[in-house]
Amino acid sequence: MPLKGSFNHIKIKIDKNQNLLILSLVLMFTGFLVVMLNKIFFQPSPPLIWDAATHYMDSVKYYISIESMNWKSMPYIDRYWPPLGPLIPVPVYLIFGATPEIGILTENALSIALLLVALYKLSEYFGIKTSIVATFVTLTSPIIMDQSITFMIDIPLTAVVAMEWYLLLKSEGFTDRRYTLLSALFFGLGILAKWTFIFFVIVPLLYELAIALHIEYHDGEIRIRPTLNILKDILIFSGVVVLVSGWWYIPNIGLVIRSILQNSKISGAIEGDPPIFSIKSALYYFFTAINFYLNPVIIGLFLASLGLLLIKIRKVSSYTKLVIGQLVFVYIVFTLTRNKDPRFLMPIIPFLGMIIGKAIDYLREFNRNKIFAGFIVILLFGGIMNVATFTKAIPIVKIAKNSNIVAISGGNLYLSGYYWSFNLNTTEDEWHIKEILSILEKDNRSHISMYVLSNNPVLTYPLRYRTINWTKTVTVIRPNTHELIPGQFSADYILYTQSESYSARWEIKHSTLARKLFIKYNNITKAFVPVREFEFPDGTKGTLYKRLPKVPVPSNTTNGDVSVTCQQPGSIFGNQVKLKAICLYQMEGIYLLEYHWEPLKDMESDYVVFVHITDENGNTVFQMDHKPCAGSCPTSTWIAGRDVIEVYYLRFPLAGCYQLRLGLWDPQKKERLPVNGNDDGHSRAVVGRICQTHSVKMLPPPGQPS
């Protein structure tokens, strides 16, 4: 018997209650929009941090690329996160300008509008009451409301998933060419929203493929009888998907797969997610549904609805069975992944509402009026309670705590949902973002770098995204890895603070070490002078330092665990820049090698610094080629009268004495710049010797006195 027949492929006719559906959706969307506008524009807004800040910055980069018609750069703006969410506000930026507020409102309002259109259309298959209930559940969901006031990509994903469900069902097994093309278009947009899209539409996709291929089960055998036209339509579907999404995925797919696999193995463990085969893992998304998707009241209603539908499973439509199957499938798949987050299953929220809606529809159809009324009252009470909590009309109430089985929200369960944005109860003004940036804005250089000696995201991310569309280039760096720490000494500005509010616990050790090194380095060099002090809302203070244009070479000295030895070779490269000094620092048990450059004129080309550590005969045993300041201070930005400092870790494979030979390489002309002073005959300057015995010392080049 054909699979299509076994699922009772029957459409529900749109009746006179359609006007009620439209009115309900419009009223709910209007109320949702009012709450959004109030939160975004009229209430103190917390800074964007982490993924939200990254998505907004990507959005502005796409806007800049499109405005300048730099199409070739677009696939490489972000090679990990797909671009659909960040692209949504771009047309609106052309009218109102690119700001976080405009981006947040546009992305989320348009996505919610698309989601409601999809739920309206799905009423053809699930009924008008079901669509109304699903809309109410979705728009009163704690995580939907919470994410509507920040710049994330999960609301667009949820909207495209719902629309793809409708279009796949309308394709009638890929026999309707118009809906086949539309479903292919939205499938491509879906995977451009997020790579997990496929998991949320796999059940209806397989269902429609089974219909298209005429899969039959007969006498213990599965038979497939596709027609040539169907195969052609499936091929067209696949081609459109590739056409829509290929511009981003084709150049990035390898990196995306490697990154996802890496994050699956590492991120979950680092962030404290439960091991896969544990009770906490099995219940992770159940408790997520309580705290983030619904609340204890509505989750109880959902479980009762699901139980009712399972009891009456033979009377349940094939489409409702698809929804149940989809919910079970994604719950199992995401439970079996190491990296977990409440956002990951957001697209199931409308379908949770559909299950409740179908149960209510069933109760009404079979005249269970008292139970029907009870379901409606409970649903309204639960949804209104969520909205009241989100708008802070009522306080958030904790009802239980059990860290042994609850892996979210610190082991707590809440009566009317958990709202992550409540944790960010400070604003950019309280963190003095505008004041800090006003100092940088007065700097007349076209390229500026600033190191924030903290991994506090409410400081670092606003400083980055508020400068992303400046005419000058501002690079804001935080020492979130060990390798980034030495770069602080090359910065034009240093923001010194011990504030680590919201910092990831595994990053604090790096910023702590960076602060220790800065204090000791600046005590020796006096390279940075304080400009202004700030008081931050977490009770800490911050000091903004500015590097002097001309930095004196420090004297050789040893003081406790701090020592510095410098040589001043004075080698000149291409008659453009002089290596004023090369210094070796020992601080906190770490060896740092400093290059002290003095531009003799404004430089126009970008050169690469090549550093060869050789034996006494000039044979290279170790090489440290690099772009200046690890790429943050290209030589084309070097100007006469302003010294450039580079600092790197110094590591040796073996003890002994080595010579340092370095030069500048022109990648355009593919040649080394000529050297005046200490040239070894290969356009390399012999600038010093480093001997590693019981300690490490910087000595002058061979033939020069100590």
Automatic annotation (TrEMBL):
Signal peptide: none annotated. One of its GO terms (biological process) is lipid biosynthetic process. Its main location: membrane. One of its GO terms (cellular component) is plasma membrane. GO terms for molecular function: pentosyltransferase activity. Keywords: Cell membrane, Glycosyltransferase, Membrane, Transferase, Transmembrane, Transmembrane helix. Residues 82-208 form the Glycosyltransferase RgtA/B/C/D-like domain. It is found in: Cell membrane. Pfam families: PMT_2 (PF13231). The chain crosses the membrane at residues 20-42, 80-96, 151-169, 181-209, 230-250, 283-311, 318-337, 372-391. It is a multi-pass membrane protein. This is Glycosyltransferase RgtA/B/C/D-like domain-containing protein. It comes from Thermococcus siculi.
